[in-house]
Amino acid sequence: xxxxxxxxxxxxxxxxxxxxxxxxxxxxxxNRLPEGFAILGIGRTEYADExxxxxxxxxxxxxxxxAEVGMKxxxxxxxxxxxxxxxxxxxxxxxxxLQEITxxxxxxxxxxxxxxxxxxxxxxxxxxxxxxxxxxxxxxIVEKPFGYNLESAQELNKIYAxxxxxxxxxxxxxxxxxxxxxxxxxxxxxxxxxxxxxxRNYIDYVEVTAVExxxxxxxxxxxxxxxxxxxxxxxHLIQLVALTAMEPPAVxxxxxxxxxxxxxxESLKPLTEEDLNEHIVRGQYTAxxxxxxxxxxxxxxxxxxxxxxxxxxxxxxNWRWSGVPFYIRTGKQMPTKVTEIVVHFRETPHxxxxxxxxxxxxANKLILRLQPNEGIVLKFGMKVPGxxxxxxxxxxxxxxxxxxxxxxxxxxARLIEDCIQGDPTLFTRSDAVEASxxxxxxxxRYWSEYPDAPLYGYPVGxxxxxxxxxxxxxxxxxxxxxxxxxxxTDQYCEL
Length: 495
Description:
The protein folds into two domains: 5-143, 3-Layer(aba) Sandwich (Rossmann fold); 176-408 and 430-473, 2-Layer Sandwich (Dihydrodipicolinate Reductase, domain 2). 33% of the residues lie in helices and 19% in strands. The protein has 14 helices and 15 strands. It has helices at residues 14-29, 49-63, 71-75, 90-102, 124-130, 150-163, 179-189, 220-224, 227-245, 254-267, 273-278, 411-420, 430-449, 466-473, and strands at residues 5-9, 38-43, 78-82, 110-114, 139-142, 169-171, 203-211, 280-286, 309-314, 326-331, 338-345, 365-371, 375-383, 391-399, 456-459. The strands form two sheets. Strands 14-13-12-11-7-10-9-8-15 form a nine-stranded mixed beta sheet, with helices on both faces. Strands 3-2-1-4-5-6 form a six-stranded parallel beta sheet. The longest helix is centred in the C-terminal third of the chain and has 20 residues, at 430-449. It is globular.
């Protein structure tokens, strides 16, 4: 096999220094990169190899804590080429540089990573094809969002299919690189006590929450053209729904797993006019105390109607899940940062025990926490010691730090390594991208056709618009607003 080279387009950008280089460094120090590997950064910023290495070394010391040995040695594998990725003429120079790095006439063991603005996603592969760099063993990783709507996603898929085979295309969603996301599958399919209960007969409803306690930072220009639905819901959240709802593959292979994901997307109940009006709540954070509102952020128009929060009720029309609502939400400037799935089981068919001592018997609840404090909690009722039958909800909890201190690992590191090894399991296939967009596209069209559709303000540091609570009340339910600690009670807690 020829020498492995990873080529990062957007090598001087934020994603590269914050995520990709720390991930590659962690693979390097664990001896999980191919022998003799090289990394070639591509960008418009002018760097010589040495100055780029110094720049990355400095950034690594910020983003890898504590600073570890071997960083300097890792940086000796870095190279840099200053070209404009949007212009075709630079790609002949790229070919020459790859020949110099590998010492090969037609280097083939190449991994292209597009850490660029989405506007270049459809441009770069065509230039690679023109330069003849789409060889048999090359692979390409594309960040989300993969398209801005169904039409643009289909167009992108056509472009990529004209340059690469599907096995060479890796559409990355770092959520699926998290150990706890993968552990949803292990929890469901490796434990015989839960799988028989995992259906409409025993589950009342499911919540999927992925919220942040930060705003848009310095990304106003990008975010205002994207919004929460494109940024989080169409990819991250619906992936978590798929992991929760999918059928077990007959054999766990990449294709079988991804087939089941697509089946979930294809089973999503099409959104009706009532759903668009009543079961989707979009919000935008407003100023509170010293914190700015979204419209006061840099590069955001003063009349912007871009959503920073969205909550939806969705249904899955299949045998297992018919009639079970899935409530999903994401938002910025929330009280805490958390990603979790909460499975609410049905009440017991007959309630023998009554409220005593301030405790009321409650339905069982399973919490699968992806970040932070990764772990799993099962809530169930137990009798309080003493006279009478005072039943209180207690918890069985598992935290990842119970696994002998083993680190959960970096999501980007896991996914890059999978790509190097040619394992596409945790990457999104073209039919899944289109199936997801097919479901969400009507929402974007509705907002476009009705620009005055409700957009609710919510103060920074709150749990979003009150209207999203009203949507849950239709089902006789409330959102689970978690504390920082996984093992929270349902009482008020300090955030």
